[in-house]
Amino acid sequence: MWTISMRILHFLLAFLIVFLLPVPGFTAGIETSFSCSQNGGFCISPKCLPGSKQIGTCILPGSKCCRKKK
């Protein structure tokens, strides 16, 4: 009985971690070059330059919206 309930609790904990933690959802809402520049970013492909971080994506496939790290 005890092992079954512990297995269920571990499963529920894993479920909560996977589905309720924010995924790099930091890209939500920044999907165009216009919204990228409004958020202080710039579009670049294929990855952000050193000293900058990705804050979204841009219209072109594979391009990222990047902003300088603070």
Protein described:
By secondary structure, this protein is α+β, with helices and mostly antiparallel strands. It has two helices and three strands; from the N terminus they run ααβββ. It is elongated, with a radius of gyration of 19 Å. InterPro entries: Beta/alpha-defensin_C, Defensin_beta-like.
Helix proportion of residues, in percent? 25-40%
Low-confidence stretches: none
Number of helices: 2
Q: Rg, please? A: 19 Å
Q: What is the H/E order?
A: HHEEE
Total number of β-strand segments? Answer: 3
What does the oligomeric state look like here?
single chain
Strand order of the largest sheet: 1-3-2
Mean model confidence by pLDDT: 78
Domain Beta/alpha-defensin C-terminal: 36-66
Protein name: Beta/alpha-defensin C-terminal domain-containing protein
Pfam families: Defensin_beta
Subcellular location: Secreted
